[in-house]
Amino acid sequence: MRKAFLLQSTISNGVIWCLFLSWLSPGVSSIQANPTLLGFHPCSHAEWESGYFKVPFSENCNFTLYGRDFSVDTYVYFTTNPENCTSESYPRYSFKLTLPSWANKTSDVSYLNLNLPDDPDVLGNMVPLYFCFNYDQNTTEGSHQGSMPWLHFRLFNKDLLPVPVEIIFIICLIVLSACFSGLNLGLMSLNLTELKIVISCGSKWEKRCARVIHPIRKHGNYLLCTLLLGNVLVNSALTILLDNLTSGLIAVIGSTIIIVIFGEIIPQAICNRYGLFVGALTLPLTVLFLILTFPISFPISKLLDCILGEELGTNYKREELLELVKQDKKNLEQDEKNIIAGALEFKHKTASDVMTPINKVFMLEIKSILDFKTMMKIAQSGHSRIPVYENDPRNIIGLLFVKDLIFHDADDKIPLNTIVKFYNHQVKSVYFDTTLDKILNEFKTGRTHLAIVIKVNDSGEGDPFHENLGVISLEDIIEEIIQCEIVDESDRFFDNRSYIPVERSSFPDFHVFLDADSTTGKFYSIRTEMDLGSNIRGEINMKLTT
C-alpha cells in the first residue's frame, strides 16, 4: 500500500514538473492552433522506471493528457521515430481524444483510452512510442510532440507470474512432462500377460509392483489417453511460461531442447528398463490424473475400445516361444534350453522321425530255440523287449520280454514259440505319421512301452497292406524331449539313427560259460522248477575248482 502511494506521488509530482518545464519551453505560444502535449498521466497499472512510463500490451490504459488546444476532432497516433511523424508511424492504431464534460470546444486536458495489441509488426518489447497529433486518422502527417522523457512511454509484456515463481513452475512442469512421457512408454510396454507372469513367478519386489500396476493397466486405452493428454497439457504450459520468460527464437529453441532432452529422451530411456518400478512409484500421480482427465479421457477410451476391441495381451506362437528360449543367454543353461525346445517341438514330430528302422531292429524268429547261444544273443543285445517275427522280419507277430526268461534254463532248450504264446504280449502298432504326443499318451497307460511303426502300402497291383517300417519305444520319445541320448550299460550304440558305437573297454563274452568245465575253470549248473501251486523248488549245485 505504501509502495503504491509513493509511486502515485512520484507520478503526480513528475507530471507537475513536466508541465512546469513545458510552459517554460521557448517557442510555445498560447495562441497556437495545433494541439500541444505538455505531459500525461497514465493508468494505475503502468509502471515508472528509469525516467519513463511502461505500459503493458493488450490492456486498457486510460491516459490523462495535459497541454493546449485539445479538441474533439484531435486524433493521436504513435511513432517510433523521435523526430517526426512521417516514418515508422502506425496510423491504423489511432485514437480520438475525449474532452472533459465541462469543456466547450477546446481544452487543456483530454482523455485517451489506449489499448494496443501485442502486434510484432507494430512494436517490439520496450520500444519507445512518441505522440503525434492530427485531425485525420487516415494520414501519417501530423505534429510530433517531442522526445523528452515525459512525452513518450514504452510498451512491455507483463509477466504472468513473478520470475522466481515462473522458474519453480517450469521445473515442476519439466518433471511432470518427464513422468508422463516415461510412463507412456514404461506402462504401455507392460502388457497384461507379462504382468501376470511377474505376479506368479517374479521376485518379491516385482510381484508387489506388478500387483499395484495391474488394476490400472487393465484399462489400457483409458491410461493411454490420460498420459497423452497430461503430456500435451504440460508441454503446452511449459512452452507458454518459457516464452513469457524469454522471447522469440530463444523461447522456441529453449523449450524444444528442454522438452526433448528432459521430457522425452532421459525419462523414456529410464522407463524402458525400469518401467515396472517407476510405474509403481508414480502410481499416485497416475491415479490423480486419471481422475482429473476423466471427463475427456474416459469417453475417448471407450470409443477406442469399441473400434479396436479389448486388449488381450501378448500371445506367443509355439515357434516364437521356442525362438525366445533359444535367444536367452543369461537365465537358462544349454541343457535347460534343449529340454524346453524338445518339449515344444516333439508334438510336431512323428513316429517316422525317431523310430529305429526295421532292418536295424534286433528280432528273433518264432521258430528259435532258447538255448545258450540264443540266450547269449539276447543278453548281448541289451534290449528288454524283443520283437518276434515269422518267416519274414517284416512280419512281426509278437513280443518277447527278457524278464519272461528269468525262470527258464538254457539247458531246457524251450521253443521261443512256447514262451510267446504263454505270455501273449500284444503288439501295439502306430502309423508312421502319428505325432509323438499321441504315442506318449498311449505309452503312459502302461499297456506297452514299445510299438511297431507301420504304413499302408498301396503300391503295385495287389491289395493294400500294412508294411512294418520300424520300432519306436518310450525311450526314443524321452530322448527326443530332453534332446539327449540315454546310454545305459547295455547299449551298443549312442542312438538309433547315426549308429555311432559306444566306446567301452569290452563287452561281456558269455562263451566262457559255454566252454568251462570242472578241470579248466568254473562250472555253474542252475536248475529251477516252478510248481504251479506256487511252490518253488530250486537246486543249485556249484563247484569251484582251480
TrEMBL record:
The chain crosses the membrane at residues 167-187, 221-242, 248-267, 274-298. It is a multi-pass membrane protein. Residues 1-30 form the signal peptide. GO terms for molecular function: transmembrane transporter activity. Keywords: CBS domain, Membrane, Repeat, Signal, Transmembrane, Transmembrane helix. It is found in: Membrane. GO terms for cellular component: plasma membrane. It comes from the Eukaryota. SUPFAM superfamilies: CBS-domain pair (SSF54631). One of its GO terms (biological process) is response to magnesium ion. Its main location: membrane. Residues 159-336 form the CNNM transmembrane domain. InterPro entries: ACDP, CBS_dom, CBS_dom_sf, CNNM, Ion_transp-like_CBS. CDD domains: CBS_pair_CorC_HlyC_assoc. Residues 355-416, 423-489 form the CBS domain. Belongs to the ACDP family. This is Metal transporter CNNM4-like isoform X2. It comes from Oopsacas minuta. The lineage of its organism: Eukaryota, Metazoa, Porifera, Hexactinellida, Hexasterophora.
